[in-house]
Amino acid sequence: MWRDSFRLQIFCLLMAVLAIVVLVHNFFQLEHLDDDTVSGSNWITENNVQHSLSHTTKTTRKPYCGYKQQTLSKREQAEQASLLAAIQWPKPPDGKIAFVQSTDPTHSDFVIVKPSRFFKVGDQLEVLVRMKDFHGKPKQYGGDYLQARIHSPLLKAGATGRIVDCHNGLYKVFFTLLWPGEVKVSVSLVHPSEAIQVLLRLREERPDRVYFKSSFKSGRYSETTECNVCLPGDLPVCNFTDLYTGEPWFCYKPRKLSCASRISHAKGGYQKGLLTQEESLFFQSDVNIKRPLLSSGPDSVMVKPKAFT
């Protein structure tokens, strides 16, 4: 009897030692797995392509935009032309404007047209916005990104206005008065026209300024690569274009895994250092981004209820 008990104890001890050995082996395998996990930037760096997820390079970029070669139907061409026309933005007469000649919200103002007029619900309120530079001189061209609204804090009511760019530094804003009582007007400069031109340049030259990443995994091995609508360089890519909508999307192909092994997708971050020192002056949060304009007269009107007959 004691021999059987001794044999059982020896067997349990051997099983415990075996379990410890397997656990240690798996631990080292996991450590090795971490070493094999690569990113898209490593893929590119190891293939001698000077591109980084976090740094801007001055090398010639060859975006992978094969979708641009596709043939569009007449209906798709008309839709494309309509979309491009909708996002068209006015350009300044000179391609390069000094910062002191750019839009200054502290010198700019707005005025309510006929503020003492008798207004009733349903009427249209007109506001004139006058943009000036940092010298206080009136701007001679448009293209500023403005936001305008009417609001009544007591009623917790608000509405946006329709802005018309006169292309000479003046803007007309039209509001429909939707409720009775005191209605206040607010106008803010979101981006000066000069900043808009910088954003347009980045849209054309750096479509990858916001980059994304996908993870690929097979068994215990995984890789991470960069993804975007266009990818620089002549490296192998995985084509994840939507078959139904035709919306293009590409990822750098993993070194060892197939495109079908993708398991996740997420935003990677933002490219850094895309602006010159002069361009960065157009993007100062406390100077010319989302800054309110002051009114040169009354900033509110009284609205009477609509008369019913």
From TrEMBL:
The chain crosses the membrane at residues 6-28. Keywords: Membrane, Transmembrane, Transmembrane helix. InterPro entries: Ig-like_fold, Ig_E-set, NXPH/NXPE. This is NXPE family member 3.
